[in-house]
């Protein structure tokens, strides 16, 4: 029998409620420093403003989240950003410099919203994001006795 203590599966710090059709998650907790992530908060603020200015505010909620476990400790403030939606593939990009222009992040948001299943080739991504792709995760398909639930 395993006697290791277990923490609850969905503690509030790691749960993010989605209120828009699509969600962009920006890491705002730095596991390497053991504190809040100032670059993550800065990127979160800029990305929220850019998504609203691009007319995508009804399509996307931009939220900060706990550690996404994709950062590189020696990259001095680079961020991890993810896109997710119900019944769509989830995308995770790393090494995003919050001081750089974020037009590629907005452009990816447009592409992601336009694709029914969120599945794209890396070649479809804006150029700066191609090299920063950490993961493209297929949409979950839950199968019960009654049938598939998406």
Your description of this structure?
It is a single chain. This protein is α+β, with helices and mostly antiparallel strands and 150 residues long. The protein has a single domain (20-149), classed as Glutaredoxin (3-Layer(aba) Sandwich), CATH 3.40.30.10. It has three helices and nine strands, in the order βββαβββααβββ. The strands form three sheets. A five-stranded mixed beta sheet has the order 4-1-5-6-7, with helices on one face. The N and C termini lie far apart (34 Å).
**CATH architectural group:** 3-Layer(aba) Sandwich
> What's the mean pLDDT score?
82
CA distance, first residue to last residue: 34 Å
CATH class: Alpha Beta
The total of helices stands at 3
Described by the principal axes of the CA atoms, the overall outline is globular
Number of strands: 9
Query: Structural class, judged by helices and strands?
Result: alpha+beta
Uncertain segments are none
Percent of sequence in beta strands: 25-35%
Largest sheet: 5 strands, mixed
Going by CATH, the homologous superfamily would be: Glutaredoxin
| Total individual domains | 1
One letter per element, helices H and strands E, the order comes to EEEHEEEHHEEE
Strand order in space, largest sheet: 4-1-5-6-7
Here the CATH topology equals: Glutaredoxin
Radius of gyration: 16 Å
**Helix amount:** 10-25%
């Amino acid at each position: 029998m395993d006697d290791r203590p277990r923490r609850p599966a969905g503690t509030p710090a790691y749960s993010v409620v989605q209120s828009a059709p699509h969600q962009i998650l920006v890491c705002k907790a730095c596991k390497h420093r053991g504190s809040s992530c100032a670059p993550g908060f800065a990127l979160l603020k800029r990305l929220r403003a850019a998504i609203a200015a691009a007319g995508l505010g009804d399509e996307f909620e931009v939220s900060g989240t706990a550690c996404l476990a994709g950062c590189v400790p020696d990259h001095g403030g680079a961020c991890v950003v993810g896109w997710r939606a119900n019944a769509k593939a989830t995308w995770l990009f790393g090494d995003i410099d919050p001081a750089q222009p974020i037009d590629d992040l907005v452009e990816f948001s447009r592409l992601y919203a336009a694709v029914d299943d969120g599945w794209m080739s890396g070649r479809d991504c804006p150029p700066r994001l191609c090299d920063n792709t950490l993961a493209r995760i297929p949409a979950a398909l839950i199968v019960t006795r009654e049938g598939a639930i998406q």
